Amino acid sequence: MDHVSDRSLTAELLLGAYATGVFPMADSRDDPDVHWVDPRVRGVLPLDGFHMSRSLARRMRSGNYTATLDVEFEAILDGCADREETWINETIRELVIELHDMGHAHGFGVWSAGRLVGGMYGVALGGAFFGESMFSAKSDGSKMSLAWAVDHLRRTGFVLYDTQFSSPHLTSLGVREVTRAAYRASLARALEASADIARLPLETDPQAVVQRITQTSYRG
After folding, report:
1. Helix extents (H) in the chain
2. Which of 36, 68, 205, 208 is deepest in the core (most CB within 10 A)?
3. What count of other Cβ atoms lies within 10 Å of the Cβ of residue 203?
4. Are strands 3-4 and 34-37 parallel, antiparallel or unpaired?
5. Which domains does the chain have, with CATH numbers?
6. Is residue 19 within 8 Å of residue 191, measured between CB atoms?
């Protein structure tokens, strides 16, 4: 992995890196360096292949949760970084906020009783969405935010959801691994796609989200 100092990294350079399939990480919250990462094997979530478990569907249908897009973005970002080990250092945090101000970084939040209980954020470029991180402050908070994100991205023209890496948890949600070459081919096509995250408002009815997702993929 190459690394770059915080003095030379800009939001524009970051977008250029995403467009070539490279993304930034720090070794820890206190590490001032940012490393460029280009995995040999990439995690992607087919937007028609999210695995909605029965328990997650029941939770979303309970009526106790609502979702927002780009509301309290910094709170979502900080929720993702609020863990013992994180790759989000201060440089990355500042750049992501700048990307948000530019209209490229977006956060999906899930709320219950006025409290943020889960969320995720990522970077949009063309028809590609680079999912960066998720967090839960309550059971299934991150899964619900991902379900809302997948539904919204599908409805607004996105064709690629990049999770960067895979894990047993992500695999259970539908993420699969592809080679670097296959990923780059998919990314090139996605960058040419016409997508606009603001094309439609975020779905307010969780039952509609569950129904659309379960029509394409359902796992008990």
Report:
1. 11-19, 54-61, 73-81, 90-102, 141-155, 168-172, 180-191, 206-214
2. 68
3. 16
4. antiparallel
5. 39-85+103-214 (3.40.630.70)
6. yes
- Taking CA 196 as the corner, what is the angle to CA 195 and CA 200, rounded to the nearest 5 degrees? 120
> Which residues have a Cβ under 8 Å from the Cβ of 164 and sit 6 or more positions away?
23, 37, 39, 42, 43, 130, 131, 132
Q: Lowest-pLDDT range, 30-34, 93-97, 200-204?
A: 30-34
What integer is the mean pLDDT of 180-208? 97
- Bridge partners of 3, per DSSP, are 35
> Which two tokens mark 198?
């603001």
d(CA 99, CA 112): 27
The model's confidence at residue 218, banded by pLDDT at 50, 70 and 90, is: very low
Read off the pTM.
Answer: 0.93
- Chain centroid, CA 217 distance in Å: 19
**Among 30, 75, 195, 41, which Cα is nearest to 123's?**
195
Mean of pLDDT over the chain: 93
pLDDT value at residue 217: 60
